[in-house]
């Protein structure tokens, strides 16, 4: 797909992987809409890349519907949707204080999995209205999974379950949308230099980085964005979940 002048929606685009992706898409010539709960930071990034910022709770149907409608009105029908919005709280199923609160588990599922599905359904609906290119392609959706979907650690039950859902969603969605020329892929990152990780004490960062075979450093949001751009550009990459993890295989703890 030709990204130049295409409308690209990035959730969680105000920081981390989403910000790196939004900047890369804009540099490649896309018209970028940043959807994020934090409107002020989203507006700062949008101003830098000549895009737009829209406040959006991806886990809420009405909020996402209004946000995607605003994107369509201001920029046109969505051609690229990249789901980067997510949360990653830690918590044991049964901890020192007893069983995990069910609401805590549900919140992670709502944001990471339901939020991904929410934007997917709305973006695909807009993509189906676009003119197809010579391959019959109308759009692409890229979601963010995690290596935790495969090797979730102790304390990551909710997060791993949500990201496992993103992995399992990818192929059936790609199969369903094939008839309308919409591709669906996902990326499963390892340890990346996002605000969450970079906010940890330096000794913790060093310890985590040492678990990465090569290179033994956190990935950069720009490196995640490079894979996003490749997925957009490669027309036969469809229904795939690609690990981006420096050969990391996480241990139980």
TrEMBL record:
Alphabetical list of PANTHER family matching this protein: 17-BETA-HYDROXYSTEROID DEHYDROGENASE 14-RELATED, SHORT-CHAIN DEHYDROGENASE/REDUCTASE
MF-aspect GO terms: oxidoreductase activity
One of the Pfam families matching this protein, by short name: adh_short
SUPFAM superfamilies: NAD(P)-binding Rossmann-fold domains
Lineage of origin: Bacteria, Pseudomonadati, Pseudomonadota, Alphaproteobacteria, Rhodospirillales
Family named by the database record: Belongs to the short-chain dehydrogenases/reductases (SDR) family.
Protein name listed in UniProt: NAD(P)-dependent dehydrogenase (Short-subunit alcohol dehydrogenase family)
Top-level taxon in the UniProt lineage: Bacteria
UniProt entry keywords in alphabetical sequence: Oxidoreductase
Keyword Oxidoreductase found: yes
Keyword Acyltransferase assigned: no
């Amino acid at each position: 797909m030709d990204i130049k002048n295409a409308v690209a929606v990035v959730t969680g685009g105000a920081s981390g992987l989403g910000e790196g992706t939004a900047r890369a898409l804009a540099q490649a010539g896309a018209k970028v809409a940043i959807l994020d709960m934090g409107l002020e930071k989203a507006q700062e990034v949008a101003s830098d890349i000549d895009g737009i910022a829209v406040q959006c709770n991806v886990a809420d149907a009405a909020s996402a519907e209004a946000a995607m409608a605003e994107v369509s009105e201001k920029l046109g029908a969505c051609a690229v949707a990249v789901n980067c919005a997510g949360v990653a709280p830690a918590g044991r199923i049964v901890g020192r204080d007893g069983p995990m609160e069910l609401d805590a588990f549900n919140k992670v599922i709502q944001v990471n999995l339901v939020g991904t599905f929410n934007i997917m359904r709305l973006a695909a609906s807009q993509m189906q209205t676009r003119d197809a290119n010579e391959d019959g392609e109308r759009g692409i959706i890229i979601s963010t999974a995690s290596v935790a979907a495969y090797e979730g650690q102790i304390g990551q039950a909710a997060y791993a379950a949500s990201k496992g859902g993103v992995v399992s969603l990818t192929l059936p969605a790609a199969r369903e949308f094939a008839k309308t020329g919409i591709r669906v892929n996902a990326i499963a990152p390892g340890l990346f230099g996002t605000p969450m990780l970079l906010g940890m004490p330096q000794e913790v960062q060093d310890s985590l980085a040492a678990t990465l075979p090569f290179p033994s450093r956190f990935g950069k949001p720009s490196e995640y964005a490079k894979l996003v751009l490749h997925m957009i550009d490669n027309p036969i990459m469809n229904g795939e979940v690609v690990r981006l993890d420096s050969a990391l295989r996480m241990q139980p703890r």
